[in-house]
Design goal:
Elements lengths: L3 H10 L1 H22 L4 H21 L4 H10 L5 H28 L7 H44 L2 H39 L8 H19 L3
Pfam family, one: PEX11
InterPro entries: PEX11 (IPR008733)
Family: Belongs to the peroxin-11 family.
Length: 230
């Protein structure tokens, strides 16, 4: 059986794993900057540099990531017409997000005109938030379907034979694990939606350093949970 170090190595070998680690750095440093900005400006400046460097690194790691959404639509768009429709909208939004994020990264590091950064950031964030809305809806539909399936299995378990009870117990466990994973996905998507809204429509709540920091960490840690090897 793999121990914690083995699992950490496997986790960090994944692109999503290293992204969640660097995302943790990014938003911890944002909260540190906010906390010490008035009292320790030299530490605040270092934290800000760490935050910016982490954000740019994550954009580099995500190169070509828009193909993930395309492949999801190509291979497994959904089991029902409703889920297929939601998958097209969700993955389409995510593809826009990751595709234009390339240009945002290039503008921020000086390869492209820096004036493009604001426009690319808006388009990327709009696609991101659009996609997250439909990912959230899809997950809630599947969670609801899982609850219904679990209720039916419970009836079978109460009325069935010993073998049937063992099979239904296994089925119920799978449904519960899937539900937890989908709830983690919802938490991450809601948190990332708050961050995206800060770019699309700046407002005191979404743009506050604490709101952004907490949202970023919720998203990162939900991703840790979902991607951690079992």
């Amino acid at each position: 059986m793999n121990d914690t170090v083995d699992k950490l190595v496997i986790f960090l070998a994944k692109r999503d794993g290293i992204d969640k680690l660097v995302k943790t750095f990014q938003y911890v440093s944002k909260l540190v900057h906010w906390h010490v900005e008035a009292t320790r400006p030299e530490i605040a400046q270092r934290a800000k540099q760490w935050e910016v460097a982490s954000g740019l690194s994550r954009k580099a790691f995500r190169s070509g990531r828009f193909l993930t959404g395309f492949n999801a639509l190509r291979r497994n768009p959904g089991s029902t017409p409703t889920l297929k429709f939601l998958a097209v909208l969700a993955n389409g939004g995510e593809m826009v997000y990751f595709f234009f994020d390339h240009f945002l990264w290039l503008a921020r590091i000086g390869v492209l005109d820096g004036k493009l950064a604001r426009r690319m950031s808006f388009i990327s964030a709009f696609g991101e938030s659009f996609g997250y809305i439909f990912f959230i809806v899809s997950d809630f539909i599947l969670i609801t379907e899982g609850i219904r399936a679990e209720r039916k299995l419970r009836v079978v378990k109460e009325e069935g034979s010993k073998d049937a009870k063992e099979n239904t117990s296994s089925g119920i466990m799978k449904i519960r694990v899937d539900r937890v994973m989908r709830l983690m996905a919802v938490a991450a998507n809601v948190a990332d939606l708050v961050i995206a809204l800060a770019d699309i429509e700046p407002n005191p709540f979404c743009n506050h350093a604490v709101s952004l920091g907490i949202s970023g960490l919720v998203s990162a840690w939900a991703g840790w949970y979902r991607n951690w090897p079992s």
